[in-house]
Write a structure and sequence with these properties.
GO molecular function: FMN binding; oxidoreductase activity, acting on the CH-NH group of donors, NAD or NADP as acceptor
Pfam families: Flavin_Reduct (PF01613)
Strand content: 35-45%
Family: Belongs to the flavoredoxin family.
Number of strands: 12
InterPro entries: Flavin_Rdtase-like_dom, Flavoredoxin, Split_barrel_FMN-bd
CATH class: Mainly Beta
Cofactor: FMN
Largest sheet: 7 strands, antiparallel
Order of helices and strands: EEEEEHEHHEEEEHEE
Helix content: 10-25%
Shape: globular
CATH architecture: Roll
Length: about 190
């Protein structure tokens, strides 16, 4: 029998994404966010939810753009740090040694060292309690060549992203592949 534990943010897992924005005087800023995901296929869109006091919140509202830099598990320390401190008080790029790269397509920077980048144009905001959900249309995806397969598509194994668990506030590496999506469940399809 299941036990009720109340209304909590325990959807598992959450992605670890680093949101890139420009602040005042075009100063590049990044912050880690775990409240995000894919929200539309056509056009391709992602959503990320931020609280109003965050520097990135104001930056997105002013510039109407953001990037999502997806760190590999070997970059967990840097990704954690940029989620701990505020861009109002620290130059996170300088402290971590990460490199801001100016997007040529949207008015936001991304992290040069992270293997997978989503460049997003803000298309909508939704107010939800203490968070604002930013919906961004993906205008381009950039990937390091060493994380691409023979078809030029990034693979989970090569990107090696990690995830966040809200229930124990831990980071976890991704595991083994279980099977092909839209295939392994076919045994239940009525013929």
């Amino acid at each position: 029998m299941k036990k009720s534990i109340g209304a909590k943010t325990f959807a598992m897992p959450s992605p670890v994404w680093v949101v890139g924005t420009y602040g005042e005087n075009s100063v590049p800023n990044i912050m880690t966010a775990a409240w995000g995901g894919i929200c539309c296929s056509v056009p391709p869109c992602v959503t990320v939810s931020l609280q109003k006091p965050r520097a990135s919140y104001d930056n997105i509202m002013k510039r109407k753009a953001f990037t999502i830099s997806i760190p590999s598990s070997k970059q967990a320390v840097e990704a954690d740090y940029v989620g701990i401190v505020s861009g109002k008080n620290a130059d996170k790029f300088a402290v971590t040694g990460l490199t801001p790269v100016k997007s040529e397509l949207v008015d936001a920077p991304y992290v040069g060292e992270f293997p997978l980048i989503l460049e997003c144009r803000l298309v909508q905001t939704v107010e939800l309690g203490i968070h604002t959900q930013f919906i961004g249309e993906i205008v381009d995806v950039k990937a390091d060549s060493d994380v691409l397969d023979e078809k030029g598509i990034p693979t989970l194994q090569k990107v090696s992203p990690f995830v966040f668990s809200a229930s124990d506030k831990g980071y976890y590496q991704m595991g083994d592949k279980l099977g092909e999506a839209f295939s392994i469940g076919m045994k239940f399809k009525v013929k």
